[in-house]
Amino acid sequence: MNRKVEVLPDLPALIERSLSIILSKLSEAIEARGQFTIALSGGSTPKPLYEAIAAQNLPWEKIHVFWGDERYVPPNHPDSNELMARQAWLNKVNIPPQNIHAMPTLDGNPAVSAAKHEKELQEFFQVKALEFPALDVILLGMGDDAHTASLFPHTDALKVTDKLVTVGNKGDSQRITFTYPFINAARCVMFVVAGANKKPSLAQVFAPAADNFTYPSRLIKPQGELLWLLDAAAGDELAAASV
Ligand SMILES: O=C(O)[C@H](O)[C@@H](O)[C@H](O)[C@H](O)COP(=O)(O)O
């Protein structure tokens, strides 16, 4: 695992740096493999990043968009991660609809939807069961409880290691989420984290020893690159420590 931490002075600088890294990964991927695959995170932090991507002039037909997790609500529900990304980005560009690989949430049962999405991913990446394909970039946020995607502390989702997708839950709100082994198969995992409220969990995630099931972001140790992009409010103590 090749872990890098960058602390940017504020949210606009964090978004700008995140955009420039994504654009460079995009051109590398298209050069090498003719396409770019990215999984999006939900929550509030990435919205300005998606708006910034939408303003770029990119080869949209070569870009495939996935989500690392989704709330188990219809795609027009205000909590939907898909809705947020479509409104901030995807509805504004000419990306072919078939390049948008949203997590299904209309089967009435998250386990059914997770299994359906697993098959969709296996078909897209041409892999069999127990094979973990590498996305070019997986974007992640981190909650102030150190969850990432919908891998919440002390939940069953943290024990699933033989699937790409599983059911997550935040209390009684149901989710679908990439599993941590699937996230770890990515060429590049980018955490984009802002706000002082994330500081205590970041300290535990970066601590030499802490419980992975209490701080699930610790489970993210990709074979490829691991980038932690933080604003100063979240990461100033980490920056000082790594000096
Ligand atoms: O579905 C979600 O909510 C996200 O995927 C989740 O993992 C998010 O990234 C964190 O909760 C951070 O959210 P904020 O960016 O809003 O702090």
Automatic annotation (TrEMBL):
EC number(s) recorded for this UniProt protein: 3.1.1.31
Top-level taxon in the UniProt lineage: Bacteria
Catalytic reaction equation(s): 6-phospho-D-glucono-1,5-lactone + H2O = 6-phospho-D-gluconate + H(+)
GO molecular function terms attached to this record: 6-phosphogluconolactonase activity
Hydrolase among keywords: yes
Class in the EC hierarchy, top level: hydrolase
Keyword annotations of the record: Hydrolase
InterPro entries noted in UniProt: 6-phosphogluconolactonase_DevB, 6PGL, Glc/Gal-6P_isomerase, NagB/RpiA_transferase-like
GO biological process, one term: pentose-phosphate shunt
PANTHER family assigned to the protein according to its UniProt record, in alphabetical order: 6-PHOSPHOGLUCONOLACTONASE
Name recorded for this polypeptide: 6-phosphogluconolactonase
Native source species: Dulcicalothrix desertica PCC 7102
